[in-house]
Structures are given as C-alpha cells and as structure tokens.
Amino acid sequence: SPTRKRGGGAEALTGITMAALGAYRCIECNGEAAELYRDYQRGVLRISICKSCQKPVDKYIEYDPVIILINAVLCKAQAYRHILFNTKINIHGKLCVFCLLCEAYLRWLQLQDSSQNTDPDDLIRYAKEWDFYRMFGIASLEQTSFFIGIFITLWWMTPEMLKRKSDFILLLKALLLSTYGKLLLIPAVIWEHDYTPLCLAFIKVFVLISNSQAIRVTLNLNRILPWFAIIFGLILENGVVCLFQKMGWDV
C-alpha cells in the first residue's frame, strides 16, 4: 500500500509494485527482489537496485518491447529473466498451439507433395483433412516426448531444483515460450515451396538454443546441464518418431 511522508514541503513518496520478497528477480544475478521500481510522483521513477550485485534489478522496464524482443532473439539471459520473472505473459499455451499448427501444415504439404495422385478432387476429401489432424497429433506427441525427456533428465540430475509443483510449471512455461523460434515457419507456410530443408534445420537449431537458454535461466544452471537434458529429450523424441515409422505412418 502507498506510504506518505509529510513535512517540510517534501513530496509524497509512493511505493508501487511492492510485492512479497522473491516476487521478482534481478536480471543480472538472478537474485530475489521485492520491487522493480518506485514512483516518486510527478512522473519521476527510480529503478530498484539489487542488494546482491548492486545493479538495476530490471533495466528492461524502460525499454521498448521491440528492443526486448531483439535481445530475446539474441538469447540474452537478462531478456529471458525479464520475460519469465518480471512480466505477466500468459500466451505460452496459445503460442505453442499456433507453432504446432504451422509445423503440422508444413508436414501436411510435404505429404501431399510426396503423393503421386494428382486428382484435384482428392485434395479436398476427408482423408486429406484427416492427414492434417494426424500430423498435428504427431507433432504434439513429439514435442511432449521432448519435454518429458528434459524433465526426466533435470529431475534426475538436479532433484533439488524441481521440488515444488510451481517449479515444474515455471519450467514448462519457459520451454513453451522458448519455442517462439518456430514462428519462423510462417514464411514457409506463406510461400509454401520456397523453403528448403536447410532453412528448417536452422529453425530447429535456433529453437533448441532458445530451449537451452530458457532452462538455464529458469533453474539458474550452467551451460552444460541444459544441453544434456535437451539431448536426452531429442533421443526420446526420435524414439517416438521411429515408433510411428514402424507403425507405417508418414511423419
């Protein structure tokens, strides 16, 4: 709640964004912080200073969203901490579904290209529509198995980091948000045949790098452990792919 100091013509001091200790994180050292800034009225703001590293808790609160996005694309840990800990973004679910739809559509196009049937009527049949739903389901299962592999590895190697349900939820949210690189699939959807396997491989690598940074920032780990988790996640994901292929499904 606001606190006021009177006397000597002093300006009222208003404390805003006050929260319980640990509600926010310093983007530099990952230390806990009770507030991001204070408003000294008349439009005068002062960013809070971290008690651990003596640097501004979150300099990005003054930055334009475009600058923050650019820093996130560059995989800067400070930008990730700002987004994950100091903002209230709830688009991770919608973002994940949208990316899966783009991925499913690309796979569906590739399936149509590999088909020898050129009858245009065949493209609008229910079977072709079902192929798209099947591709969406396969892409969803692959991503789910990838995340499960990551969680299993991290829980096995650092059980103290994932003691509470909130820790799992935060990590899942970070992983979902870090798949934003799949939005690069949109140009491939728009121009259809203008994309190349090299482009898709580049998108895959970029998403994996973003996943690694999200794990590192969320759990405050070194650079090596997140990659172990990602490698195991890829192994489990490829295992699911091999299972679908043995079932005779085109993936």
UniProtKB/TrEMBL annotation:
Topology in membrane: Multi-pass membrane protein
Localization of this protein: Endoplasmic reticulum membrane
GO biological process terms held by the UniProt record: intracellular sterol transport; regulation of plasma membrane sterol distribution; sphingolipid metabolic process; sterol metabolic process
Organism: Elachura formosa (spotted wren-babbler)
Top-level taxonomic group: Eukaryota
Family: Belongs to the ARV1 family.
UniProt keyword Transport present: yes
InterPro entries with a match to the protein in the record: Arv1
Residue spans crossing the bilayer: 135-156, 168-191, 198-218, 224-244
UniProt xrefs under Pfam families: Arv1 (PF04161)
Keyword tags: Endoplasmic reticulum, Lipid metabolism, Lipid transport, Membrane, Transmembrane, Transmembrane helix, Transport
Protein name per Swiss-Prot or TrEMBL: Protein ARV
Main location: endoplasmic reticulum
GO cellular component, one term: endoplasmic reticulum membrane
Function, as annotated: Mediator of sterol homeostasis involved in sterol uptake, trafficking and distribution into membranes.
